Amino acid sequence: MTGTDSHRGRRIVVAFVLMLGFAVVIFRLFTLQVLQAAELTVKAERQHRKAVTVEGERGTIYDRHGKVLAINVDVPSVFGVPSSLENPSGVARDLARVLHVRADEIEKKLKQERSFVWIARKLDPEQGRRLEGMSLEGIGTVMEGRRFYPKGPLLSHVLGFAGMDGQGLEGIERRYEPYLRGEKQIVVLQRDALGRTVFPKGLDEQGPAAGHSVMLTIDEVIQYMAEKELEEAVTATGAKGGVVVVMEPRTGAILAMAVNPRFDPNAVRAISADRWRNRALTDAYEPGSTMKVFVAAAALEEKVMTPGTLVYVENGQMVVANTVIHDHEKAGWMTFAQVIQRSSNIGSVKTAMALGEDRVYRYLRAFGFGERTEIDLPGEGAGLVKEPQDWGSRSLSSIAIGQEIGVSAVQLATALSAVANGGWLMKPYIVSEVRDAKGRVVMQAGPQVRRRPVSPETALTLTGILEGVVAHGTGSKAAVPGYRVAGKTGTAQKIDPQTGAYSASLFVGSFVGFVPAEDPRMAIVVVIDEPQTEAWGGVVAAPVFQRIAEQALPYLGVSPHQPIKLAMNATGGVLQRP
Amino acid sequence: MRTLATLAVMALLLLYVWERVDIVRAGYHIERLKSKKVLLQRERDELRVKVSTLTAPERIARAATEKLGMIPPQQGQVILVKVEPETPDSDRLADPEVRLAKSHGPGRTP
Prior knowledge:
By secondary structure, chain A is α+β, with helices and mostly antiparallel strands. Chain A is 35% helix and 22% strand. Chain A folds into 3 domains: 33 residues; 164 residues, Penicillin-binding protein 2a (Domain 2); 336 residues, DD-peptidase/beta-lactamase superfamily (Beta-lactamase). Chain A is elongated and about 150 Å long.
């Protein structure tokens, strides 16, 4: 065999081996690409693609000046994979230091025979950063939206709160849930071998839309003033609680709505449902003498009375349907204006009698009692005004002095605003605007007139009478120096739940008023429930009105009715005080 | 001529491959930027919560009274005035409203 033959033989062998190799590869390719193509394509798709449900951020709630009252922030939730843990006790100890939870509780979770356990959900961002720094084996974090109420208990009864899964459960959060909730979207991600997202499917692909932002009519500062003064009054009088509603009479916009006791919506799990009820609109109470305002409005409108009409008030005692009605002072004759200013029960009963059942009922309904104000908050009650056919022999006289009738604080504020604004009954509202994530207005609310229960002349005359209540009547403690205040006190006995009769020790003290009387900017209702000290509305509630008005009027830039006039030079310096 | 055509085809193929690789690279870059955006948005939201918490009227009032020893103005210490300019053109100007805080409290010089 020559050398040439030997080389040729080797080439053939190499060529054969190579061809065999190629044949194997081609066969394998054929198998993968043709025979198993469909099956493997599905498998690859499953591995490369991941469908995740993404939810847009819940909308923010602002006050009328754009101050944030409720906002969503992504915070970490911690989970464990017990099957991949070698030393659960050590990991539990490390976690306990950050989470402030007992180590044995965490260890118990980590020793379960499961592939996934939640250890703690919706932590503070700082805790999440510390956990990330520790990078513990078998422990992971995912981000979830958590609702924050940065002002704590401020406005809690109005804002309500959202649940663990971000759904609105109370207050604005519940009522405006369809607007606030972010859009849910299923997004398919392409991942590489390391699990990283490779490439967005399309550059113009949009994420899920965030929830809309809600702008309230509430003024954070006036809200604070109302809550602070209410809290102080409730504490000072040892009362069970209290309510303050501040409304713009011309528009029906709510400036403040305070309920005491308060709660912190950031920590609602420890609080009973009774505590977070917005009693300004859910609870009806017998208003007592504040109801005389509306009986008086009816009498003036129907020309049954004028401010100067003389009324004989029976020296402080009168029998109606076998029941003795008392006045807190003995008097003979007084003018109709004095009946209101000195809060004579007998004078009011006689006024109601002069009007008759039908007219009293008609005006009470016209002022919105016995029906919902339709304020945009959940849980509003309609109060209680019985139909005249259901009235007993004492009902007319009882209603004239604010008994046998149930009203809510928001109903009172709305009715009082009708007296303040010249006779228009407005629909109260608390959300002024809803905007989408791009800032476009989606919904806008404004003043809405429901009806006109009395004429402007009646409203003006009544305002004058109510100014007298504060100037020289039972509401003197509501006087705000420099401003004209109109208002009315109320002291109502509560029904004793055990006897079913009026209690001699349980009272509701209230004051309703508006200021400045000549151009009202605020109608304020103050209700103090079961004060343990003196119960008179003029003593427990009127000072709360006074302190709120005294602070809020300068804040709103409202000038006193007798301004001090200064002459100023060109640079703004004061030259003289006349 | 054939060589040129071959080179052109190869250049086109390389261009295509380069483009695909670049798209993938840009995809990773976009994803990194998206993650960064999410982190910045999260930081922004946390800061908004912080600002909102720190500017709460309750907190400011507490800091003013407890830390700085301030007290609410007493009756007569805040005077609201309507200012009327004394120039002859005054009627053409808007009616400005200013607030002056002035101390008339005991022990203080007015």
